[in-house]
């Protein structure tokens, strides 16, 4: 019987079922991870040569071999699942090209464990930067639309009941503010996880005099993880990132739910172009909110991925394990790619949604969402306690409803009648002030406290948000430039080592 292709400890070849169901699926991402694996190898070769752990001529052959593989691309590597994973296939191809003696020296002072841990951080780092950039795009769209619709009055809801008038721009400003926190959470994780595990070896370091700070620098990390066991055994940065994406997905689902309700025939507050809708196979009148349903459905899937990853990892030992460091991390890669797609769709929703301005303003004027403004007027004009004013206005609303009148047809006579019943005296409020506080546009502009929907509050808030967004975009661009500079430096040093 043929022995294992990767170990003389194993005297039997890998079972076909293991190859088919475990190892072959692991090789499906070989092409996408090929560049990062090459960079890890370049950094390790340079460090070994600088530390005198391999001869200079050996390092040159290794460096040229890695560069030649890079030039040929991942398709040139024959993938054999019986070699278990990407690294062993990469190494086997390199040895085939430059020989076992020199090719076998690449693995001096390291383990597949620290290679995998480093590859996970490199891949996660790239995805986090992509997510932060995509969030910035959505936030910019929300801010642009918030400025455009800053004076489009609509009902605001609590418990899905008309509550107080707001503007559509004010709603979008709130969406952007929440997304800003999602972006900050991802940024904090990105900054804390940019530490290099390379050199931790299997989990207990190595007797070779390696320079971990050097490989960390060459790969664009801010430093290295001090404890080798933690460097190998922990994938908390992936769980942390997945948790942030779960929070993000829950939020975008709530936004999608708002639009889902507002775009119904019954509400009719928001309209979408036909290009983002679907129809029915049987009911020709249908215009179905396909994008909104996708966003809501995918959010549940991402929350499920977090739960699946957490449950998988919780039962593993604090060291390197296949279930903890491979199976337990799969959910993040899927969630990150799904989140990137959903953020593009959320941006589409915000860009293409159009408020039905006239209907929204009319609804806000008729649906009693201005009632709080009337109570506030009583507090200001006749020095009622708010609770007394609340009772009076409650009676006025009840009277109007019983008479089938909308809010904007409430009169001072109705107010005085209810005040006599509740307080024993009339209020004699100025007619024009009553009209103003029952007008939804005036009601909105009267809410000028910090964080309110009036133009005096909203526009400065949007300006501050735009300034913060610009700074965050610039910071993420600077990160990308630092990573790119590290890649260019690594490539130049490797070419010099190879004598090219």
From TrEMBL:
- EC number(s) per entry: 4.3.2.1
Its localization reads: Cytoplasm
The protein's UniProt keywords, in alphabetical order, are: Amino-acid biosynthesis, Arginine biosynthesis, Cytoplasm, Lyase
Task: Report the top EC class in one word.
Answer: lyase
Pathway participation: Amino-acid biosynthesis; L-arginine biosynthesis; L-arginine from L-ornithine and carbamoyl phosphate: step 3/3
Q: Give the Fumarate lyase N-terminal domain ranges.
A: 74-304
Q: Which GO terms describe its molecular function?
A: lyase activity
Q: Which reaction does it catalyse?
A: 2-(N(omega)-L-arginino)succinate = fumarate + L-arginine
InterPro entries annotated for this entry? Arg_succ_lyase_C, Argininosuccinate_lyase, Fumarase/histidase_N, Fumarate_lyase_fam, Fumarate_lyase_N, L-Aspartase-like
Can the keyword Iron-sulfur be found in this entry's annotation?
A: no
Q: Where do the Argininosuccinate lyase C-terminal domain residues begin and end?
A: 368-444
- State whether keyword Cytoplasm applies: yes
Task: Fetch the Gene3D superfamilies from UniProt.
Answer: Fumarase/aspartase (C-terminal domain), Fumarase/aspartase (Central domain), Fumarase/aspartase (N-terminal domain)
- Signal peptide segment: none
Family of this protein: In the N-terminal section; belongs to the lyase 1 family. Argininosuccinate lyase subfamily.
What is the protein name for this chain? Answer: Argininosuccinate lyase
Source species, please? Pseudomonas parafulva
Instruction: Give the gene name.
Output: argH
